[in-house]
Each structure stands twice: as structure tokens, then as C-alpha cells.
Amino acid sequence: MKSFRTIAGALVLGLVITVLAGRPVQAGITISQSWLKLDGKSEPAAAAIRIEKDLIRLEMGSSKDVYFIYRGDKQLFWIVNLKEKTYTEMTEKDFEDMMAKMEQAKKQMAATLEKMPPEQRKMMEDMMKKMMPGADAPKTEFKSTGSGGKINGWNTVKYEAIREGVKRSDIWLAEFNGVGVTDADFAPFKHMAKYFEKFSPDNEWKLQDKGMPVKSISYKDGKPEFQTEVKSVKKEAQAASLFEVPAGFAMKKLGMPPGK
Length: 260
Known about the structure:
By secondary structure, this protein is an alpha+beta fold. It is 23% helix and 37% strand.
């Protein structure tokens, strides 16, 4: 389960810098980004999001050897590892099965917690919320701080994302028209989001109606941890091969080492 949570976390990072929407897609899109770990010594890494009809490819700057493909036409998701020459496939049933296992584990843990002293029980309950989020997970609140200035030529409005009184991220939004696209260009994200809503039931998608995120800084323990920034947005047709698993790659089970 830890492996899946790592994957889901990476996806949330990729998606928060993009947008969900609900109308038919209009054209292929390439969103070029930079990803930077804010440790004072790391160099920016290139990242990209590619969209064509109901297909999405996420190339994460945090890991150049791994990318993600969503196939809306097949209702499945692939995680491709170039270094290992493997891929993991997840279908809607896989997600449902994982959720069922998580709920069963939560019930078993709840029964164990009833036997613990109050202080120890509270500590374990807080830990469970972080490890196994559900409908009762803390929600993120967004606070506008006014103009965010220009980001790569786009006028922005800055928001702070706050959860349980702690700032989790700063997000800069630009108007769709200002970026040169419409919300309809991002329709596939709404379809893909349903796979992750139960595992990440936060409300971070609420910003979708306010504009397109073009920059994001995430915080950990009050300190900036990493930054993602959109460098360019282009409407262009995408090659079909970008949304296929490379020939000869072996499928592996989620959370299992290659070959197992």
C-alpha cells in the first residue's frame, strides 16, 4: 500500500499544477514545466504533461525514469519505468479492490483502537488519517492573497492552501484565456480524477474553476520543499506512440519488485 500512496502522491503533484474540467477536449496540448527540489543545491528538472483527446501522459521532473499514461478509451492507467523496462497497469476494478482492502484494514484497526488508552488511541487515529485517508480526512482551505504578479508573462492571482491551520502550498493561477487555452482542453483530467478521489478525498480540485495553476510551491514542516512551474503551453497534435507502453516491457504487480 505504501507503494501506491507514493504513486498517488506523485500524481497529485502533477495534477495540482494542471486543471480538471468537464467539456469535450478541443486539441492536443503540451504543457512544459520545470520541477525543482528547494534544498539549495538541486538543479531544475524538465517535466511535461501531454494531452490528446482522452489520453494523458505525465512526465514528472522528480523521476525521469518513470512516467504515467492515462487511457480514457481503455479506462486504465499505466505506470512506465524506463530503467526497469517494466510497467504497472491499474484498472477501475483494481482501484475498487484497493479501496475495499483499505476499508477492511481501517475496520480492523478501529476494533484494536477501542482497547487502547485514550492518549494512545488519539495518536494512532491521527496516524491512520495520514496513512489511510477517507471521507473524514482534513480538507484543504484556499485563501487568496491578491495579485501574484506575472509568471512567464501570465497575470496571476496567488492562493495559499491551508490544512489544519498549516500552509501546505502556494499556488499561482492564470486565466485560461491569458494562457491561450480553455478549460475544455483539459477534460480528460476529470475522467482520470475519479480513480484517485477516494484515495485523496481532499478538495484541492476546487481551484479548477478559478483558472489554470502555472506555479506551485509545496511546504513541509513550514519550509518550502519543491516547486513546479509551467514554462509554456502549446496546442499541438501528439504522437500516438506517446500513449503506449514501449514494446518488450514486462508487466509487474503493483507494490511488487520486478519479476515477482
